[in-house]
Fold this sequence. Notes:
The structure holds 2 protein chains of 2 kinds. By secondary structure, chain A is an all-alpha fold.
Amino acid sequence: xxxxxxxxxxxxxxxxxxxxxxxxxxxxxxxxxxxxxxxxxxxxxxxxxxxxxxxxxxxxxxxxxxxxxxxxxxxxxxxxxxxxxxxxxxxxxxxxxxxxxxxxxxxxxxxxxxxxxxxxxxxxxxxxxxxxxxxxxxxxxxxxxxxxxxxxxxxxxxxxxxxxxxxxxxxxxxxxxxxxxxxxxxxxxxxxxxxxxxxxxxxxxxxxxxxxxxxxxxxxxxxxxxxxxxxxxxxxxxxxxxxxxxxxxxxxxxxxxxxxxxxxxxxxxxxxxxxxxxxxxxxxxxxxxxxxxxxxxxxxxxxxxx
Amino acid sequence: xxxxxxxxxxxxxxxxxxxxxxxxxxxxxxxxxxxxxxxxxxxxxxxxxxxxxxxxxxxxxxxxxxxxxxxxxxxxxxxxxxxxxxxxxxxxxxxxxxxxxxxxxxxxxxxxxxxxxxxxxxxxxxxxxxxxxxxxxxxxxxxxxxxxxxxxxxxxxxxxxxxxxxxxxxxxxxxxxxxxxxxxxxxxxxxxxxxxxxxxxxxxxxxxxxxxxxxxxxxxxxxxxxxxxxxxxxxxxxxxxxxxxxxxxxxxxxxxxxxxxxxxxxxxxxxxxxxxxxxxxxxxxxxxxxxxxxxxxxxxxxxxxxxxxxxxxxxxxxxxxxxxxxxxxxxxxxxxxxxxxxxxxxxxxx
Lengths: 306, 350
Ligand SMILES: Nc1ncnc2c1ncn2[C@@H]1O[C@H](COP(=O)(O)OP(=O)(O)OP(=O)(O)O)[C@@H](O)[C@H]1O
Ligand SMILES: [Mg+2]
């Protein structure tokens, strides 16, 4: 287990290095980094200090090392749009909002999708199964932004149950979390269903029945514990879709997280902030995947004891 | 083997039972399966009796309905495809087919336990061996707390001669060899002190030496506890070593039944003779049954007469039209029977 987690950690580090390399490359691809990293009205003094700070007068590999060194200290330049803040400060300020929303939507999708998949598999071929399938299909085929707009229309504008948009507590988060979860619910429910079908057909389930285990325990303990390994592997991907989804959903709901920030930063040509968002997204994504690997090992003794 | 004198789960309830009590009587059991090819009569009027301390062998080609028969007894058939449509399963006088699911759960594992064919797949990979045995104990033998149950599980592992059972109890299935896993399944089966163990080809996936050990283990357990064993196999060699009585199944029906010695010395049904003919007699190692000419019949659209008629060298028109009744085979064994119209002819001139 320790070995497994250590290997995964190294892999994550390599991936992170690759991402910094790409981000670094992009600043140079678009011409002089000076143009990308400084506002148009920058003074000569600012330009010179930037060149010194990032080592722009030195060879490329040294520049990269300087960039990496700065990045490790959390220094990804100063924001061009939000004057007086560093890029990292701007992003970190917005990150909690995104994580809260993402967390809620993951929770929502787990709470809905896993039971849905289990029940569908258990009652395979019945109306329950078919309805679950329709729900899943719908969730996967409706565009998130459209669903978001419809939710606002119906539940915020029409019924007035929730605020239409903006920052706030749980009431503000519910509609965007639903919109965000819709796709994941669909994917997760289908994965759970097919894994459960395999599991319910297995010999160990048969033997459990033959030793007198009640059906609900067969389903929720014996079968699900095995089947859970499959949807769990999907959580890593889910983290990715959450981060990209945040860009769309946060825009629709004016939710002040990093997704919305990245749109604002791109519009304001605030390259340092865009860069910080990309790197931070990568870190979050890798972190979640790392946690998923650890969970995976926890659920499956074949990995844990390897 | 060290065994606490009279405190194993088996002894407590079974100590005094006289050997030879009629435990199980299956009468005319019928199970149908809905498949895409139509209705399959997987079990088509199977009857037999099982006494305590006895080992009854069921032999037959793949697909002849052996597993479906025993699964029907315990009502653990694949749903919704399979339906038990008739017959009686009398366990100590009570018809199990009249019991509801709740009542059946108290029979399964506790009164009648089962060992499945493949130890690689029949243990749950995400739970320890101890967990899986304790779960059964908790369902059936609530007397005593968690500690007592763990102790019982250790004892069960000791009974199947697993070394260092206190440690093995914490092992996951993937940490054990195939033979040891099958022993663990055996321990699970005996843990709740059942009167009957149904073993569905338990040694098919084990290599020959391990297989022999396993069979010896079953025999010893039986001697110690007075268990009745229903043993499903493809292997006449095993039947010869282990069983006193034998059922030969073909296409969902019992075509011949009787004491093993009588059936071996004087096989009456052409199918049994074909099966025995396909066994290499020189050594006791038996071959698979595929050596008979022709295919086992597809169970949909069966011939209305004897199911074996299309492959039988003695079949005549009556065989193809009408299913033969069960007839006594004329030899020293009074309970040697076979279902064949041409018993006299085919039997006489073999
Ligand atoms: N889950 C199932 N769905 C549909 N048909 C099945 C199912 N399980 C078994 N059958 C059919 O039921 C019939 C009897 O099968 P069964 O498993 O009892 O045979 P068997 O004698 O145990 O064979 P084997 O020696 O291969 O274990 C076969 O025709 C088989 O195809
Ligand atoms: Mg079978």
